[in-house]
Write a structure and sequence with these properties.
The chain has about 300 residues and is of the alpha/beta class. The chain is about 30% helix and about 20% strand. This is Methyltransferase FkbM domain-containing protein.
Length: about 300
């Protein structure tokens, strides 16, 4: 048994080395500018189950541009932003709440895991943090403002799942408060958003923060599905921050980088309206705010406007 485990481990390492050699040759011999080549080669480190794809096909390039158009963030002055949850994985850049709605706000955290620093810091700020996750037994933190429920958010209410509508009712969310939703539920966010009226989210939350998964630009139906959901979100919310997860599957097409995992923070439209005159950002990765999700890999550049 031990010999088999050693064999499998060596086989896995060998496959990774072969993949890295193959991709290194593809990157070096591709018509890519030297700076992007260097980044792609650096990103080959610590790839494990994830991959890098160089794909200049027109459809893939346009899919990336479509995603970037939908997720292009509003240009806010940095004094209006705050990073909560610390550096790297688990932290999010968001709008500094306020506006007279901060009397007794709540934060709904979907997808907790054993490490959720955003939840703890929000609790320290005075938010009542409501956590839902059936994959763990209890919250990783003991705090008077944190309440944990061992359930998944789903399409029905039963022993193991609860709808987001029911969660709002059970926890007495108040539409007059600056409530915030944070959602990292490993690709289940798309079904959740398809099953709910986005107008309901805008009634209860001034901000919504998502880690979107599965945004593979080589998928035809998957792209169409996600694009439709993002378009519905944009009817009621405006992106104010977008960041590419550097440990996901990474794509490169004609000068644009992309990841299948993206962190996006939204501000409700009525609150964002006064900032629309600022326009939208042309590039991502804000100095003093953004950090690599996975410290062992370099940050991925994010361009929202690409010269033709």
């Amino acid at each position: 048994m031990q010999d088999l485990e050693i064999f499998n481990k060596n086989l896995e390492l060998n496959n990774q080395l072969i993949y890295n050699l193959l991709m290194s040759n593809i990157i070096i011999n591709s018509d890519i500018n030297s700076k992007d080549k260097q980044l792609l080669l650096l990103l080959l480190q610590s790839r494990d189950r994830n991959f890098i794809r160089i794909n200049p096909n027109e459809q893939v390039f346009e899919n990336i541009r479509n995603y970037l158009t939908l997720l292009k963030p509003l240009k806010l002055d940095t004094d209006k932003l705050i990073r909560v949850g610390g550096a790297n994985d688990g932290g999010y850049v968001m709008y500094k709440w306020g506006g007279g709605l901060e009397n007794s706000p709540k934060a709904l955290s979907l997808g907790v895991s054993e490490y959720s620093p955003w939840d703890l810091e929000m609790a320290e700020f005075g938010f009542e943090v409501i956590e839902y996750d059936a994959s763990i037994e209890k919250s990783p933190y003991i705090h008077k403002n944190i309440h944990f429920y061992k359930k998944f958010i789903g399409a029905k209410n039963d022993e193991h799942t609860i709808t987001i509508t029911q969660a709002l009712m059970d926890n007495a969310f108040d539409t007059t408060q600056a409530n915030i939703l944070q959602c990292d539920i490993e690709n289940s966010e798309w079904q959740m958003l398809e099953d709910i009226d986005i107008k309901l989210l805008s009634a209860y939350f001034t901000q919504v923060i998502f880690e979107f998964h599965g945004c593979n630009v080589e998928e035809i139906e998957g792209f169409k599905r996600r694009k439709k959901v993002l378009e519905r979100l944009n009817e009621y919310f405006v992106p104010i921050h977008t960041h590419l997860n550097n440990h996901g599957k990474i794509f490169y097409s004609r000068g644009l980088f992309w990841s299948t995992t993206i962190e996006v923070s939204y501000l409700r439209k009525d609150l964002a309206e006064k900032f629309l005159q600022n326009g939208f950002r042309k590039e991502g990765n804000l100095k003093d705010f953004d950090t690599p999700t996975y410290l062992a890999n370099v940050e991925i550049p994010l361009k929202f406007d690409l010269e033709d």
